[in-house]
């Protein structure tokens, strides 16, 4: 095991089926959330992202996240505007998940580091940038609101992610296919 994994499993029927199931899970879980909209809202989509990274590696997870984002915004749209920047963020999010979680031992430390990088890159940097571009909102005003919320979600997502991935790793659902 290395610190980070840049490999993905071979593209087999089983891998494609697993990707399809996880894309469906991503779409459904990203629609579920708890907490009020104006305070800290926790979405469950992060669980599917972690599972994709764990099973599919960085490159297939990046592709799966792009497919999920496009399907969510076209077929399952709730009326919001499509912005390609968020699709780019989804791809980066998938790559980060795969790099940190594919073929790795699941430890609380690894999950905290993974979620920190994920939160910093996709949530704080890119999402703030996309909101600024779309709505011309001042970046410092956005960061003032977004950073505290993301610190809280970082902690919660790390702990929940650890518990979920630890349980899933015991199921031994990974195929014995070589990676490329």
UniProtKB/TrEMBL annotation:
Q: Which domain of life is it from?
A: Bacteria
* Listed GO MF terms: transmembrane transporter activity
Name the keywords, alphabetized.
Membrane, Transmembrane, Transmembrane helix
What the entry lists under Pfam families is as follows:
ECF_trnsprt
**Record field: transmembrane:** 12-30, 42-62, 82-102, 111-131, 151-168
Q: Which InterPro entries match?
A: ECF_S_folate_fam, ECF_trnsprt_substrate-spec
Q: What is this protein called?
A: Folate family ECF transporter S component
Q: Which organism is it from?
A: Ligilactobacillus salivarius
């Amino acid at each position: 095991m290395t610190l980070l994994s840049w490999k993905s499993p071979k593209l087999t029927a089983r891998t494609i089926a697993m990707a399809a199931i996880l894309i469906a899970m991503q779409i459904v879980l990203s629609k579920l959330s708890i907490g009020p909209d104006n305070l800290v809202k926790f979405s469950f989509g992060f669980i599917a992202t972690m599972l994709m990274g764990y099973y599919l590696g960085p490159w297939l997870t990046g592709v799966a996240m792009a497919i999920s984002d496009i399907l969510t915004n076209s077929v399952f749209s709730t009326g919001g505007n499509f912005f390609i920047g968020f699709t780019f963020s989804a791809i980066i999010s998938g790559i980060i998940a795969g790099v940190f979680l594919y073929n790795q031992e699941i430890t609380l430390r690894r999950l905290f580091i993974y979620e920190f990088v994920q939160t910093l890159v996709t949530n704080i940097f890119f999402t703030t940038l996309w909101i600024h571009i779309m709505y011309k909102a001042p970046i410092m005003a956005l960061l003032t609101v977004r950073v505290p919320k993301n610190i809280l979600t970082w902690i919660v997502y790390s702990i929940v992610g650890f518990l979920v991935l630890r349980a899933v790793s015991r199921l031994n659902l990974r195929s014995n296919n070589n990676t490329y």
